[in-house]
Amino acid sequence: MLLHDFLRAAARQWPQKTSIVFAKRAYCFREIDQQSDRLACELQRLGVRRGDRIAALLDNSLDLVVTLWGTLKAGAVLVPVSPGTKADGLGFLLSDSGAACLVAHGHLRRTVNEAVAKSAFAGPLIWAGGKGERSLDDILAEPHRVPDDSGLIDQDLCLIIYTSGSTGRPKGVMMTHRTMCNNVMVISDYLRNTPDDVVLCVLPLSYSYGLSQVLTGAQIGFAVVVERSFAFPYDVLKRIGEYKVTGMPSVPTVFAAMLQCAPFEGLDLSSLRYFTNAAAALPTAHILEVRRLFPKVEFFSMYGLTECTRVCYLDPARLDNKPGSVGRAMPNCEVHIVDDEGRCCAPREVGELVVRGSNLMRGYWRRPEETALALRDGDIPGEKVLYTGDLFWMDEEGDLFFVGRKDDMFKCRGEKVSPREVEACLYELPAVAEAAVVGVPHPTDGFAVKAFVVPRAGQEVTEDLLRKHCRQHLDALLVPRFFEICDSLPKTDSGKITRAALRKSAVT
After folding, report:
1. Measured between alpha carbons, how far is 114 from 121 in angstroms, rounded to an integer?
2. What ranges in 274-327 are assigned the alpha helix state H?
3. 410-506 is classed in which CATH architecture?
4. From CA 4, how far away is CA 214, in angstroms rounded?
5. Fewer Cβ neighbours under 10 Å: the N or C end of the chain?
6. Are 121 and 95 in contact, with CB atoms under 8 Å apart?
7. What is the CATH number of domain 230-404?
8. Per-residue pLDDT for the chain (508 aa), expressed as one digit of tens each?
């Protein structure tokens, strides 16, 4: 099974069924299949061969969906790049991946030209969203042809997804067809997806969480309504009623914006069956508010990372009993928690999460040393397991609780501080929309706790209010020494709050 076999099969079984909705235009599976065939043929004509990397600098759009499938059909490997990437970053990705071709939106021409001039990239450019030169629109208007069989097997790479690079230069996470097919099928199984589902995707398709919605739609046969972003929450939420959306994958920043639209006057949200949350932990206070506002909608708290897409989920039936948990390992996956010496932790003991299964990356592209740190020998000779770098604890029933990234932990007065514990307390205040906690250098504490807080629209938040609340609910060590009330928090293109940027701003 190859990843693009999902689309081929859907086009045969449901040729006229809607696959993608973008800008209020619906495209059926046959259209997507045939358009991606045309692009695959053009890539092969340009000399693209099995295993070559195709970089895609594209907004959430039909162009990106077609480029995904066309790249895979040509036997190549898609390297999705966030359209917000600057020229220096794009130049690095082109050189590091050894991209054979770049597909980019025309409005990003200046960034592309500057990046190409600074990189080793020498391949052809395909421009989307315009005429002239080598135009994607012209390619997709050509007569339909089927690309040559590239001879792929399921161990070949299909994706290289670069991490956000919060701790240095981005690393390219290598995913095989076999791994991605496994992940898509397992996730759709526990979400109980059917061809009748309609999924609203406001997540960037340049990251695995958003891209998975398109892949799963093809595997199951459901429609995906693609939005450029969640910048205008109320307008996007209208799509739920317009298209009878049943599923909405989100991240904490999306939920925070959505909750500010409550009580959702004038919106028809009755078709919703489920929410999912991944990419970053959703504060328990927000989970409880979502449950209150949507009592009939199933909520899947999930955990995953780029290096293995998804690891675990909490059955919605148990959410009310354990709202702070991300559940247990998904099917065909095993997890355990180890201490610094590699010993398995006892229940409720904090340690690093280790993952075993078919969901793991092949490694980091051209990064053997960093690959060796993440993928280490397992108990079975020759097998590798993933050391996630994330701290968890497990209760007596086997449910997992996220503590934080090892890199985010810091010591205050000699004691370890988990930023998430402080953030969870701040989120209990109804007036707090977003919160992030970091450690900042301090002459006596080593690191002092500093909290950045964004108030909800129309709400007033003061330092006295925040400090009083924290003193009532936290140990003295965890009460922030410093507070900063701000209009927004820095985020990656995938919606994660970037603590590295906050740490930097706190000391400059």
Report:
1. 11
2. 284-293
3. 2-Layer Sandwich (3.30)
4. 11
5. C
6. yes
7. 3.40.50.12780
8. 899 999 999 999 999 999 999 999 999 999 999 999 999 999 999 999 999 999 999 999 999 999 999 999 999 999 999 999 999 999 999 999 999 999 999 999 999 999 999 899 999 999 998 666 789 999 999 999 999 999 999 999 999 999 864 446 899 999 999 999 999 999 999 999 999 999 999 999 999 999 999 999 999 999 999 999 998 999 999 999 999 999 999 998 899 899 989 999 999 999 999 999 997 788 898 999 999 999 999 999 999 999 999 999 999 999 999 999 999 999 999 999 999 999 999 999 999 999 999 999 999 999 999 999 999 999 999 999 999 999 999 999 999 999 888 888 888 887 878 898 899 999 999 999 999 999 998 887 888 999 999 999 889 999 999 999 999 998 888 999 999 999 999 988 777 888 888 887 765 4
E strand map for 13-109: 18-22, 25-28, 53-57, 77-81, 101-105
Q: Judge whether 29-176 and 230-404 match in fold.
A: yes
Which residue's structure tokens are 């594209």?
58
Angle between helices 419-427 and 463-473 (to 10 degrees): 110
Cis peptide preceding 263, ω within 30 of 0: yes
Domain ranges of the chain: 29-176, 230-404, 410-506
Instruction: For residues 91 and 35, give the distance between their C-alpha atoms in angstroms, rounded to a whole number.
Output: 28
Angle, CA 401 vertex, CA 189 and CA 441 arms, to 5°: 130
Q: Which CATH number fits domain 29-176: 2.40.30.110, 3.90.1300.10, 3.40.50.980, 3.30.360.10?
A: 3.40.50.980
- Phi and psi at 2, nearest 5°, equal -105, 155
Q: Report the distance separating Cα 354 and Cα 342, nearest Å.
A: 10
Global confidence as pTM: 0.89
Which of 174, 161, 170, 244 is closest to 210 using CA atoms?
A: 161
